[in-house]
Every structure is written in C-alpha cells, then in structure tokens.
Amino acid sequence: MALWIQAQQLQGDALLQMQSLYGQHFPIEVRHYLAQWLEAQPWDAIDLENQQEEFKAKRLLDGLIQELQKKAEHQMGEDGFLLKIKLVWVTILDKCHDFHFFHFHNDPLVRCVKHILYTEQRLVQEASNASSPGSGPVDGTPQKYQQINQTFEELRVMTQDTENDLRKLQHSQEYFIIQYQESLRIQAQLSSLASIPPAERVQRESGLQSRKSTLEVWLTREANTLQKYRQELAEKHQRTLALLRKQQTVIIDDELIQWKRRQQLAGNGGPSEGGLDILQAWCEKLADMIWQNRQQIRRVEHLTQQLPIPGPTEELLTELNATVTDIISALVTSTFIIEKQPPQVLKTQTKFSATVRLLVGGKLNVHMNPPQVKATIISEQQAKALLKNENTRNDSSGEILNNNCVMEYHQTTGTLSAHFRTMSLKRIKRSDRRGAESVTEEKFTVLFESQFSVGGNELVFHVKTLSLPVVVIVHGSQDNNATATVLWDNAFSEPGRVPFVVPDKVLWPQLCEALNMKYKSEVQSDRGLSEDNLVFLAQKAFSSSSNNPEDYCNMTISWSQFNRESLPGRNFTFWQWFDGVIELMKKHLKSHWNDGAILGFLNKQQAQDMLMSKPNGTFLLRFSDSEIGGITIAWVAENPNKAERMVWNLMPFTTKDFSIRSLADRISDLNHLLFLYPNQPKEEVFSRYCTPPNSKAVGDGYVKPEIKQVVKVENDPMLDTEGEFDLEETMDMARQVEEFLRQPMETQWSGQQS
User: What Cα–Cα distance (Å) separates residue 457 from each residue in 361, 408, 461?
Assistant: First the structure.
C-alpha cells in the first residue's frame, strides 16, 4: 500500500504530527496529488553536503515542477484549487533557479521532502505496531523500538502524575499559609486585649484562645501532611529519574553506540549506518521529560524555601537536583556527534569535509544563540589524555584551515548541525614511532568541541567529540598502507576502548568478514568472496596448502602478517596484494566480475588442473601471484614443441595495460581463446564490452591506428620455461602507436596508408 494512503489513515496525535509537516514551505496538496511520483524518487541518494550533487537535486526540482504542471493541466476542470498551487507554488520553485538550489527558504527542499517521507513512514509504522501489539515487529521495526516507546509512555504518565501531585501540594501549601496568617492575626488580637476592660477581655479572650488552639492543632497536622506530600513527591521523582536514566542508557549506550559502530563499519564498506531521525526523536523526548522533571524539582525547592518544614526532604531534593542535572548533562554531551566523518585517510593540503550535529539542540533551544564549533587534529596520546580529563586544551598535532563553523538550525527537520565544507590539513606533527611502526600506522583524530548554555544560562555545557581514527599521508603512494590501518581499526575496535587500542591478532574468519565487506563495497557487487576464494586467501596468508576451510577457522592472523611482513618470496604484503586486486577490479574489471567471468582467486596449479579436462581453447582468468594488481589468462592448447596438451599463461595484465586496451578487446584479439571456463563461448560473455571498429576514413588526412594483441604459439621465443608469454613486444607496439600519433609520418596500419 502506498505510504500516502496509509498516512491518511492515521488518527489522533499521529495525524496531527503528520499534518504539521506541511505548510507554505511544502503544501499538503502537492503531497496529495504527487504522492506516487514523490515516493518513487531517489531522495535518499542525494548527499546534501556534497556540492557536486547539486545537479541531481536540480533534476528532481525540474521533475517536480513538470509533474505539478501536468497534474494541474490534467485536472484543471475537476479541481480549480490546483490553479492556485500552480501559479503560487511553482512560481516560488521557479525562483529557485536564480539562487543556489541548496538554499530554498533557508532550508534545502530535498531535505524537507526526505524528512516528510521519513516521518510519515515512522508514524505509519508506530501506528501499525500499536494496532497489532501481539504481531511482533512491523516492516522490520525492532521489538526493542516498541519497548522504548512503551517506556516513554510510562514516563509521560509518571511525569504527569508528579505534575498533578505538585499542583496539589502547591494548593495545600497556599491554604496552609493562609491559615498560618490567620493564626498570626489571632495572636495579634490576643495581644491587643490588654487595653480593654477585664470583663470584656475575658469573654473575647476565651473565644480567641479556642480558635487559636483549634487552628494550631490543624496547622500541626497539616504541616505533617505537607511534609508527607513533599516526601512522597520526592520519592516519585526518584523513581521517574531512575527510569529516565535507564531509558537514556538504552538510547545512548545501546542504540546510539550501535549507530556509531555501523558508521565505523560503513568506512570498511558495510551497510549505511542509517539516518538519525529516530534517535533524535528519542533524545528530544528524553530532553523534554528530563527538563520537565527538573522544573518540577525546582518548583518543589521553591515551595520548600517558601515554607521551611524540618525533615529529610531538603536533603532529598538536593540529591534529586544533582541527579537530574547529571542526567541532562550526560544526554547533551553524548548527543553531540559526528554525522559525517572526515576521511579516515587524510592527505595534507587537500580539502575535506565533516558534519557534526547536536541531537537535542532544537528541543533545548540552543539555536537561539547559535554556538560555534572548532575542529582540531590531535594524536592518539593526546586523545587518551583528553578522555582522562587531563589538561590538553591547547595541544594539537597539526594545523587545520577553515576549522571554525557556526551551528545552523534547519526549521523543517528540526536539526542543529555544523557543516565543515572546506577544511584542509596544512601541516601535521608526528610523534616518535614505536619499533617497526611506520608513518601509515600512526593514528590521529579530529576533535570537535563547542560551548553553549541552556535554560537562560542555567546550565553551561562544554561538549566535545572525537572522529574515527585518521591516518595522515602526504603522498598518494602511502594510501595503500594507510587504508590497511583504517580497515583493521574499523573492523576490530571495540566500543568504549581507550584510543585507539585494537587487537594485534584476530581470528581468520573475522578478517574474512572484513575483507569480503571491503571487496563487495569497492567492486560494487553483490557477488562477494566465495568460500573457495577465502580458502585461496588463507593459503596465501598462512603459506598453507590445505583446501579444507575448517582448517583455518581457529587460526589467528596478526597485524604483522596482514600488512607488515612480506609474503614468502615476494616484496609485498598480503594486504598490498589484495588491495591491488581491488584496485584492478574497481577501475577496469568490475563488470566482468559481476558477470562471473573472472574466477580470479586461483593459483597456477589449480588453473592447470581445471583446464586440462576441457577442450583446447578453454581459458580462465586468475589473479597473478607474483605481481600486485595483475590478472593473467590461462588456457589449454597443444604444445607445438611436444606432442601433448598443456596450459599456457600470459604474463599478467595491470591497470596500465587496460588503460591502453580493455580486457574484452584483448580476449577478442586472441583467436585461440574459444571458451570461457567451463564451456561458454567467449563472444557470449565479452562481445558486449568490446570497442566498436574504428572508421577507416578521417577528415584530417590521417588514419586511426588500431592496437591488437598478438600471441604466437608455434616455436615462439617469447615463451618462457614456465609456459608464460612475455608481452613486451606487444607493449612495444602500443608505444609505437603513441609515437605514430605524435608524428605526421607515413606509416601503414591495418592495410591503410595516410
């Protein structure tokens, strides 16, 4: 069922919340008549902080205008109010073309629509959960979310109950004070009787003494009652604050920490951490209820000061005040978070961005006096000292340009955030390295900090948050090893750790999960690493020959084995080899991997065993063991020097080779390659990726050259002793072509003459 249809079926408070989403900034009529179109658009695919994605947003804006115009023209006769929408709202939208699109009424339209659709979805899900309490989660909403919402309802009832009790106490105390004043008035009258005749004085004194005695008995009894009310109210506040703290622990220490963990794994290619809207809604509810209880406790304190009654209540109120202040302080400082992390491999003199957000900023009206946020880069040791509350206020490990930003409040979404768009690390100060540690193993972090007050300067907060670990590089050649440090840290760090402690050894299956996550993300494929692929990687990492996956389940791999020690007989590490494969696939071969055309993770012997049982001309593609980022073609054919079949291996191709001629074109060039293992004709697999033939005639008098790969098999001097072909001569051809393009000289290519 369409979301808008479900949203219109909401009732009560949910319906009011839904209706409040709309106004002049986005008319509800537009939502109604363009419901299907709005829900079909890729709003979530647009990164509002990325200026380069403005064209996507503008395309959606153009589409929205066109859809609105079409709908107005189609239904003009049926519903005249659409004419008003077309003339007024489309005029507003058209004006957006004269300004930067990301500032529409001081708030991005894309963010507005995303917020509306997300909120509607949440309200519909909550309504579905409420109507079917025994049916379990709806639309993937965790059962825990239902428990959180139930606790909020319990807290609401408790807070309302203490509010009612407080009013009752206030009314009782006001009446007590009136009666106490009456008691004082009677006492004053008794004192004035000395000046009147004795007979009259005795008569009047008797009546006043009787009223005074009765009133004093009532005051004594009522004072005890007031003290009892105060004590009971304080105990209720104790229970409410205990439940608030428990709820806050669930939201901050569980849900928010899980969100941060998902954010960290997303740095390794894991699923997106998801939005913060639900977490912000919870945190705002917490802030609202904490503040209500704080105000109630302060009102009780005022009543106590107004009418002091000896007893334990004053001490209890002092304790409650400290507790509620501690709870709200923990909430504010914990909800100052990094929504968009700075890059974890950070190159000096290069622009980068980040976004920080205060989840309770809107609810606590922090935006009324927008705070400024400052970013500083600090070392691992400085981060440790910071968490120990040691004085590191003026310490930094480098200089960041454009490192100050004022937090902005977005009215539509209710978010308070600071967007650092053009930061740049000007310089870095490194610490002394330990042992074999390289510069690409040294971790830094970006510290974001701010200061603001809430409640009319009642409370002042100094908030700070640390980014995920950052590895600083000065040259692109360091990116490979820096990425290894980041991947290991993201995959194996634990929540609440001391910065930035990470295990030196992990189980092989744990590393497999991280490698698979990274590979799928970089290659942009649902086809991850198979069990056979992971066995191959285990054999490479541990120099093992076992083909049984279970043999590796309990084995551990150290950081040194991962990216410090070279593989046996090689001058590169395990990670450097694997990262080379990722780079090759990402730049040139992802389509072939997604098609299943590349087996890749095979050694030379495995390829030979697989091909020898197949017809001549059968070939497969595997990654080179000897070269970083290399892939080779192995095929089975007759050996012209011996009367037998054998498997041939071309020298590996690299990114440099594929920038000259693609894999599909190279395979097409080699006529002796017939079937992709196990038995697919190569044309079925690769022809759609081949470059169309060049036209022979060109207007400038020159003929376009054509590069073709040639491999000679019969008595070929390029054949080495291990059955590999040296393609240097073929690469020489490419260089000759480059010379040809530079020089206006007569030469012959493909049977044509200039």
Answer: 15, 20, 10
pLDDT band (50, 70, 90) for residue 618: very high
Give the separation between CA 350 and CA 343, rounded to whole angstroms: 11
Contact in structure between 269 and 186 (CB atoms under 8 Å): no
CA distance 142 to 254: 13
Phi, psi of 417 (to 5 degrees): -150, 160
Q: Is the peptide bond before 678 cis (omega within 30 degrees of 0)?
A: yes
Q: Phi and psi for 2 in degrees, rounded to 5?
A: -60, 145
What is the per-residue DSSP string for 337-395?
EEEEPPPSEEETT-EEEEEEEETTTTTTTGGGSPPEEEEEEEEHHHHHHHHTT---TT-
Q: Is residue 745 a contact partner of residue 705, using CB atoms and an 8 Å limit?
A: no
Kindly provide the b/e burial profile for residues 408-429, where b requires at least 16 CB atoms within 10 angstroms of the residue's own CB: ebbebbbbbbbbbeebbbeebe
Write the pLDDT tens digit of every residue in 224-249. 999 999 999 999 999 999 999 999 99
If DSSP states are collapsed to H, E and C, what string results for 88-135?
A: HHHHHHHHHHHCCCCCCCCCCHHHHHHHHHHHHHHHHHHHHHHHCCCC
- pLDDT, tens digit, for every residue of 143-184? 788 888 889 989 999 999 999 999 999 999 999 999 989 888
Number of C-beta neighbours around residue 31 at 10 A: 20
Measure the CA–CA gap between 610 and 619, rounded to whole angstroms.
Answer: 10
- Pair of tokens at residue 116: 């509306």
State the chain's mean pLDDT as an integer: 83
